[in-house]
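Technical annex, item 7. During the second reporting period the consortium partners agreed on a shared format for inverse folding records so that results from different sites could be compared directly. Each record opens with the tokenized structure and is followed by the designed sequence. A conforming record, contributed by the partner at site C, is shown below for reference.
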């Protein structure tokens, strides 16, 4: 029996403060796994080939579908605005053609469906969104969002286990 392969894909614009939380979560996970963090100009694609791989992108594009077909589970990590009233929002992503979040980005479900169309296999998908508070131009996370990075990493580790803990949405403490 082969080991389950997982890809953690952080996405968002690191030059719009909390929108870059996906890259921070990916780099925190990489450090826990004993790997060097991705520098600002690296997406991690050159380092693929592990049981658990990580990439960090500014946006999701259709070209990613070919990469996804090699995995059993893809965990997408991004930021959300606080209207969800959860500091960590998790949802299962099923392979299906979906409208994008915004006009220049591909929906995770569409990427999974494209992976199925191209390679005959759609990995399981989870979208894990961390609450963002500051989306202004600038670098670095707000204090509130930075405090949620470890919670997101713990949840990712649980999702990667053979029998992950049940889905839970974490309410905001404020």
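Designed sequence (site C submission):
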């Amino acid at each position: 029996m082969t080991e389950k392969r997982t890809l953690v894909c952080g996405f968002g614009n690191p030059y719009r403060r909390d929108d870059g939380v996906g890259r921070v979560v990916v780099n925190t996970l990489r450090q826990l796994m004993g790997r060097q963090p991705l520098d600002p100009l690296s997406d991690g694609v050159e380092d693929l080939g592990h049981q658990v791989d990580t990439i960090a992108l500014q946006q999701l594009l259709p070209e990613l579908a070919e990469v996804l077909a090699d995995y059993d589970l893809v965990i997408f990590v991004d930021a959300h605005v606080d209207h969800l009233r959860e500091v960590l929002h998790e949802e299962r992503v099923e392979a299906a053609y979906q409208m994008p979040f915004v006009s220049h980005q591909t929906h995770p479900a569409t990427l999974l469906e494209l992976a199925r169309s191209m390679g005959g296999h759609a990995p399981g998908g989870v979208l894990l969104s961390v609450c963002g508070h500051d989306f202004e131009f600038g670098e670095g996370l707000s204090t509130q969002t930075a405090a949620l990075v470890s919670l997101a990493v713990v949840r990712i580790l649980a999702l990667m286990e053979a029998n992950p803990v049940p889905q839970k949405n974490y309410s905001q403490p404020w």
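The beta strands are 6-11, 52-57, 73-80, 86-93, 124-131, 170-171. The CA atoms of residues 5 and 50 lie 8 Å apart. All partners now use this format for quarterly exchanges.
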